[in-house]
Specification:
single chain; about 250 residues; mainly beta; Immunoglobulin-like; 7-stranded mixed β-sheet; globular
């Protein structure tokens, strides 16, 4: 069972792909030698056994992880083409109940990764820059990254997104820092501490800005529509407060 996962993405606008890895911290619920992950349209490149807790370590350390040097045998199998594929990973030994293991899957999204959506500049309000966003409901999270794509598993997550400095990425997580990568590129990192279904892990990249709408709410939108969006959601904080008090 996944407890925390960390994604490290490079946004490739030319090929319209997310390239990178996902690391999963998993607690063994029943003695196991094989792990299965949901995937759909992704190009899996390699799988490694990592030091236990590597996903959380990456989230807390600017996305930096130890060099993976323990490759595992794996295979992608199609069980039902309407629901994706299964990534089967051989752990090479049995792990007992309660053991914490961490797996890293190196991959890139493909043209059939339906949860990753790309818009050209002329499809945006501003018309100057392209735009991408993920949409993981209801079972499209497996096309964003190989993972345990089930709402029965509540997790925390982190992520680092590398893209050109003219773009601004946001995740459904708190911003933790921006760091210079190679020339002209920056890495933005995020951390969500609230356990939630993994389909709520989301990414958006474009000519975006953020404005606070209250103590715990805000609006993310293109620069050209942020004022209109702020007016449309002028009571967002009040709605949130009312709902929070009710539940």
């Amino acid at each position: 069972m996944t407890t925390h996962q960390h994604v490290d993405w490079f946004v490739n606008w030319t090929n319209k792909t997310l390239q990178g890895s996902i690391i999963l911290d998993m607690v063994v619920k029943k003695e196991v030698q094989y792990v299965t992950l949901d995937t759909w349209g992704n190009n899996v490149q390699d799988v490694h056994l990592m030091p236990a807790g590597s996903a959380m370590s990456a989230t807390l350390n600017k996305g930096i992880v130890p060099v993976a040097d323990n490759p595992l045998a794996w295979a992608v199998r199609t069980v039902n083409p309407n629901t994706g594929q299964v990534l089967v990973i051989d752990l090479a030994q049995n792990y007992t109940t309660g053991t914490l293991i961490s797996l890293q899957v190196l991959y890139e999204t493909g043209s059939s990764s339906g949860g990753v959506n790309w818009l050209n500049a002329n499809q945006t309000t501003g018309g100057n820059y392209p735009f991408m966003y993920t949409y993981s409901q209801d079972i499209s999270g497996r096309s964003v990254a190989p993972q345990q794509d089930t709402p029965s598993n509540r997790i925390t997550w982190g992520g680092c997104v590398t893209t050109e400095k003219i773009f601004t990425p946001f995740m459904s997580a708190n911003f933790t820092g921006k760091y210079q990568s190679v020339y002209g590129f920056y890495k933005n990192c995020f951390y969500n501490t609230v356990k939630a279904p993994n389909y709520l892990m989301a990414l958006v990249v474009g000519d975006l800005t953020y404005q606070s709408r209250g103590a715990t709410t805000g609006i993310i939108a293109e620069h050209d529509v942020i004022d209109a969006a702020m007016q449309e959601f002028d009571n967002l904080q009040a709605l949130f407060d009312t709902t929070e008090n009710y539940v």
